[in-house]
Amino acid sequence: MKNFLIVFAVMAIHLQASSQDLFDILDEEAPQTKNYVSSTFKGTRILNGHSIENRKKGTLEFVISHRFGRVNLGADELYGLDQSNIRFAFEYGLSDNIMLGVGRSSFDKTYDGFVKYKLLKQSSGKKSFPFSTSFFGSIAYRTIDDFEPGNEPTTSQRLSYTSQVLIARKFSPGFSLQVMPTYIHRNSVKTEEDPHGIFAVGIGSRVKLTKRISINGEYYYTVNPLESINTTNSLAFGIDIETGGHVFQIILSNSITMIEKSFITESTDDFFEGDVHLGFNISRAFQFGKHKKKKLKKLQESNQ
Amino acid sequence: MKTTHILLLCFFLTNFLQGQERFLTKQGYTSFFSSSPVEDIKADNNQVLSIIDTSTGAIAISILMKSFQFEKSLMQEHFNENYVESDTYPKAKFKGKIPNINGLSNSEETVTITGDLTIHGVTKNIKTQAKIIKTQDNISLKGSFPVNVADYNIEIPAVVINNIAKTIEVTFELDHKPYKK
């Protein structure tokens, strides 16, 4: 009789277990996969500088950035709007991890090219990883002819290089933080006292207000600034607005340029004395190639 | 002692029988299609989980939103970030009933499935026709139904109102195999 009761109990438990919710079975059967965190930032820029975000493979983005003059120039200069700096660029996702770009800035008539490589990706789920890391490298070629007669710089003397490590974490869907150790090297400097190599560290963040709007902030601290000009650290605040294929950023910053070697080391305005520049970053994305087909193929392969 | 043996036999037998009652797929296919004057948008998902209990006719479907693949990668990002908010609502679910599942013949038949569809945290009762083929070791379900985007509190901003259809056609193809624990 005792045995009978035990077996009966086991059977009862067994039957109960088998009548569990069908969704529980689905949850159990769901493949345990690693989920990469997406959209740490909306755009490829936090404001002036780069974010860890890349454009996906085959996406070509046309980026137009503007910085107007200082708003405290007064009504005569229409609060800075009479002056304008522009950079336009083509930026392309060579793969999901590598992004290339070429651009041209009106400031110092500078051409620039950059590579951004996603090395580590923040993920959740199985084998999760706490943050994302990207490498960023760029070359800037200054073509403005502001030299004294007979003192023309060589091609090499016109070049500057930027290397950055971008480390970011999306703490919650609404809050992301990024730290950017930076090294900038310029082949030629104005005076002997100016360092060729400049170290800086940046911090950037975004706070999402609604699904399509976020507030961003970005600050770069320069460890050993240029001596020949009275420089300030670059500070920027802005709003990201996303509309379909566009990301639109409205920026207030003390920097008037849009490439790293320039805004990190050559900003001279003081944000808190009202030397603020209004600016915009506007981008339009175009998709080339078939993103989907390859992804589907990959998924099917991984399922088998 | 003999009773115990018989009961143990029953126990294993029930286990065996239950193995035949449930049919599962982990690689079901679902797609949705939005047609508008400006553009057509299509997304596919090949990782749909679905289970049918033939003893009751109950069906449960679970779809991971992030597994939908779009032609344009930026669209996929916006779909997850702005429209279905995959971080907050990672899955779409369907819990329904297939009537008279044991009375089906081995050839294709049409059944009306009713149940609750949950997308974006909103649950609505739906009714759809599906083609079903049930054999000893396979249950295949195929069909499509319209989903009214506004019913599920999915906002479409004014700038893209002409790019996205108000009603989206959802297609499914689920090939269930016997599920054994």
UniProtKB/TrEMBL annotation, chain A:
Domain DUF5777: 41-286
Entry keyword set: Signal
Pfam families assigned to the protein according to its UniProt record, in alphabetical order: DUF5777
Leader sequence residues: 1-19
Domain of life: Bacteria
Protein name: DUF5777 domain-containing protein
Top-level taxonomy: Bacteria, Pseudomonadati, Bacteroidota, Flavobacteriia, Flavobacteriales
UniProtKB/TrEMBL annotation, chain B:
SMART domains assigned to the protein according to its UniProt record, in alphabetical order: YceI (SM00867)
Pfam families noted in UniProt: YceI (PF04264)
Lipid/polyisoprenoid-binding YceI-like domain boundaries: 21-177
Record-given protein name: YceI family protein
